[in-house]
Amino acid sequence: MTDSWLALEPGADPAERTRTLRRAHETFTAAGTVSRPVRAVVAESWRRSVRAGVGPDGTASVELMDGDLGAYRAEHPLARVMPLVRELMGAFAADGEHLLAVCDAHGRLLWVEGHPATRRRADGMNFVPGARWAESAVGTNAPGTAMAVGRPVQVFTAEHFIRRVQPWTCAAAPVHDPRTGRVLGAVDITGGDGLAHPHSLGFVQAVARAAESQLALLAPETPGGEGAELAALGRDEALLTADGRKVRLSRRHSEIVVLLAQHPEGLTGDELLCGLYEDETVPPVTLRAELARLRGIVGPARLASRPYRLTMPVESDVTVVERRLRAGAVTGAAAAYAGPLLPGSQAPAVVRLRRRLSDGLRAALIARRDPDLLADWAHAPWGEDDLDVWRALTAVRPTATTRSRLAALESELAGPDAR
């Protein structure tokens, strides 16, 4: 084969290849061995599927429905490029009796559109909005595997790990945030054998690149058009962006702006003193001096007094996480959570807010029981010793690694006397 990323080489018989792949799939599920002509990318994906605990007779689970799905989609970055995706893929999907699909970074389908009859058939395998098609959930499939390997992928008929998906062929490509490089999700085209053509792989890759280009052109959205953005999660010095200018705030100014952003109605001097200082003997003049310096940084017109308040709307990463949690968009909340709020701060109000945000997200993750989300938290610096999350992760993904780490944490908690 000239290109191992293509499902069929020129001149190959699709029907014969499907029969050969089905035999190879049965051999693998029975004995764990992979025979030709299974491509390396597929063989590796099958092995990952088994390690993740996926069975060949499984099915996708629907995890977001109705209002939760709508709230999550509305705030997802890819919502801004969906008109472009529909323009580029919609007619192709409808005319060819295919489906276009867009998923998030965890493989959760956000949009599934296309030919009505094909959509009805796809409903039978839960290829529907809100269903999770990560490779770790349903095995080898184009959107899930594309994100697992970080590049466009074709999956042809019996290359799919789950049997009920094997009548289908699909091609998908990941979409990245043009500023950070972070994977936002993937675009996918799903349908019949004809999609094994090389053009379909190039097509989804071109759509993904067009979406990334469109995202790069779109200015960040801010409330009211004249607002600011505040990044305070996972960093001791917050980053304030306003008027196209980024300012790294001092630790004390970071605390002040975080608290004022949480209270757009304003705070009195006494309220700010109590929220910022553990020492009750700190005089008000100390706070007034800090506020005067902050006013010189953000501009005199943007920091008012009596009460102290920001006169510009501020969208902070803290409020994004809180808003998504309230909407039940747990995946979106986890994606926006870059770490504990101002982790080095000892300001009483910041400590309370940091704990409330972390505890709320942890509880949502544990309740959701999504192995990918739990694993992301458990392997992050702030979650590597989180016993409750490791217990939840081990319950849904009982691998040797998770069981070993959980046993080590429980042993540490029990202390030397219990050993």
From TrEMBL:
Give residue ranges for domain GAF: 102-214
Q: Which Gene3D superfamilies match?
A: 3.30.450.40
- UniProt-recorded name of the protein: GAF domain-containing protein
Q: Pfam families from the entry?
A: GAF (PF01590)
Query: Which top-rank group of organisms is this from?
Result: Bacteria
- Write down the InterPro entries for this protein, in alphabetical order: GAF, GAF-like_dom_sf
